[in-house]
Design goal:
Strand content: 15-25%
Shape: elongated
Number of strands: 24
Length: 562
């Protein structure tokens, strides 16, 4: 992509990231919403435009009325119980029976709080799994998850999760979507019917899921779109009379999506979807993306079950992380033992060479640079000395807490394009002044990355000469060849570098200093021996050099320095 196109894309991304998707002011029309004030009467201060379809009263008949007057005493008690529950866990779900205003129906409700208000969401989930079946459904899910062998390779585990989720939810396509470090995402597992398109192995650019959407995924673990083509219902009045702000729908189960994302789903031939967040250590790791070629209504009960799926898989992701950390610790321990053996005095090139082989192997690197107290040692394939010196002078400005890594060095440091065949990937561990440092290098490895549609298709110029991202029309696969990139450094490699890199440098530096001190003592002994042969009978002692770095023998009567 040219510099100009890159600037246009960045401008469009900023505009996209500014969209307040949690305050769009609409819900999906298969449900309704009432916004309640916090006082005991719970006055209705806002309502969805379709409220009549659920409680038989128009919006003018509900606004400003206490909730008791609308639903009666018994349902109100149930709502109060849900409010108590939601105070502890942010949201709550339940089933209430409405008998007032000639209604005699069961309504599924979802309750959440925001800025001192209570938002009550209603659906009539007739024919869908009810709360009475939730316990049975959760037991079935738990047994299914426990039956999965979590000792298998990670990709096999995700294949089984995709199959299991499709079986439990009856969606036509279920994909496991993993975020990369730059927030591009890749489908690492998929279970689907023949009619659903395959996206296995396809990557999607970070712009498909902007930052504010990713933030919502960490707070609201399940997002459902019942019918992409449905006309949303408005929250009225648009501004809350109490706060004078649009309603914050972060924890809503019915929030309608941005028109841009709805068009995106339509272009993918998706009519209904459910997305389940996957977290690792509280951070967004990926998504379970469920697609349906026709509209699909999902009950609040199934939504709770999907939250259970999120927590179960997220727990396994944490265990994967802990297992990787344990393996990392074992490797660090083994390497440290080798270092202890290899760094005994005297420090020789032979011992450093033996260590370098292990350091290259554990990092899957092809080049290694070590600087000890300003003295440099090189092993394997590296840039030419002059080019290496220029690179070393640039690196201090890039290191953060003594660490820097990249797998596309020429994008950070253009001169590196001249030697990308040996140094496209770089990992640095250094002291603040670079007196002691270790650099690992990896060569470029041209890689073909399969994208689901060309992301540049959505970049369009507006009437005011700005740029915005619109959903691309095609998701047909295309492959981009990346030049000047190495195999990325794994999190495990970065952890190993972080854990033992500084210790290694300290060990090398201490060995170097110790060797220097020994050499000084040997030099002093030689001088004393020489002095004794020249001036026998004198008593000799030591005098520190002016800079305090060395000492020399001299005759006790001060006649001369030796």
């Amino acid at each position: 992509m040219s510099t100009r196109n890159q600037e246009n894309l960045e401008q469009a991304l900023k505009l996209c990231a500014s969209e307040p998707i949690h305050q769009l002011g609409h819900i999906q029309p298969h449900g309704a919403a009432l916004v309640l004030s916090a006082e005991p009467q719970h006055t209705i201060v806002q309502a969805s435009s379709n409220i009549h379809d659920f409680i038989g009263l128009t919006i003018d008949e509900v606004l400003g009325k206490p909730l008791l007057e609308l639903i009666g005493a018994d349902p109100l008690k149930e709502i109060e119980a849900l409010i108590q529950k939601a105070q502890a866990q942010k949201t709550a779900c339940g089933l209430i029976k409405l008998t007032s205003h000639p209604l005699n129906i069961d309504i599924d409700v979802h309750l959440y709080s925001n800025n001192g208000l209570w938002i009550l969401e209603l659906t009539n989930d007739s024919g869908l799994p009810k709360r009475a079946q939730l316990g049975e459904l959760l037991v079935e899910m738990q047994q299914s998850f426990l039956a999965i062998d979590n000792t298998i390779e990670n990709l096999q585990y995700f294949d089984q999760i995709a199959d299991l989720v499709r079986k439990l939810t009856n969606y036509e396509s279920v994909m496991i979507y993993h975020f990369e470090e730059n927030w591009d995402g890749t489908v690492i597992a998929q279970s689907r019917v023949d009619a659903a398109p395959s996206y296995l192995g396809s990557s999607f650019p970070a712009s498909d899921i902007p930052p504010q959407a990713r933030a919502l995924y960490t707070q609201n673990l399940v997002r459902i779109v019942a019918d992409v083509a449905a006309v949303p219902a408005s929250i009225l009045p648009p501004l809350n009379p109490i706060s004078q702000l649009p309603l914050d729908m972060t924890y809503s189960a019915l929030r309608s999506l941005s028109p841009i994302h709805l068009e995106y789903l339509k272009n993918m031939q998706v009519a209904g979807s459910m997305v389940i967040s996957l977290l690792q250590n509280g951070q967004l790791w990926g998504l379970i993306s469920c697609h349906q070629l026709t509209p699909k209504w999902v009950s609040f009960t199934m939504r709770e079950a999907a939250q259970f799926i999120s927590r179960m898989v997220s727990e396994e992701l944490l265990l994967m992380h802990l297992r990787a950390e344990n393996e990392c610790f074992k490797q660090c321990t083994a390497i440290n033992l080798l270092l202890i053996k290899g760094l005994d005095y005297p420090l020789q090139n032979g011992s450093l060479h033996a260590i370098s082989i292990d350091l290259l192997e554990v990092m899957a690197a092809t080049g290694l640079f070590i600087r000890i107290e300003g003295v440099s040692h090189t092993y394997g394939q590296l840039p030419e000395p002059g080019a290496l010196d220029v690179l070393l002078s640039w690196l201090p400005s890039q290191a953060h807490n003594g660490l820097f890594s990249c797998n596309n060095l020429s994008q950070h440091f253009p001169s590196a394009k001249n030697y990308q065949n040996v140094a496209s990937g770089l990992l640095l561990v250094a002291s603040n002044d670079m007196t002691n440092c270790i650099l690992w290098f990896r060569p470029h490895q041209p890689e073909g990355k399969k994208w689901a549609g060309h992301y540049s298709q959505g970049l369009q110029k507006t009437a005011d000469d700005h740029y915005q991202l619109n959903p691309r029309k095609s998701f047909e696969s295309w492959t981009a060849i990346s030049e000047g990139c190495s195999v990325p450094w794994s999190m495990q490699a970065l952890e190993i570098a972080k854990n033992f890199g500084k210790n290694l440098m300290e060990g090398l530096a201490n060995t170097h200093k110790y060797q220097h001190e020994i050499n000084q003592r040997l030099e002093i002994s030689k001088r004393l021996e020489k002095a004794s042969s020249r001036l026998p009978g004198f008593i000799y002692t030591f005098r520190l050099h002016a800079d305090g770095t060395s000492c020399f023998p001299y005759a006790s009567d001060g006649i001369q320095d030796i």
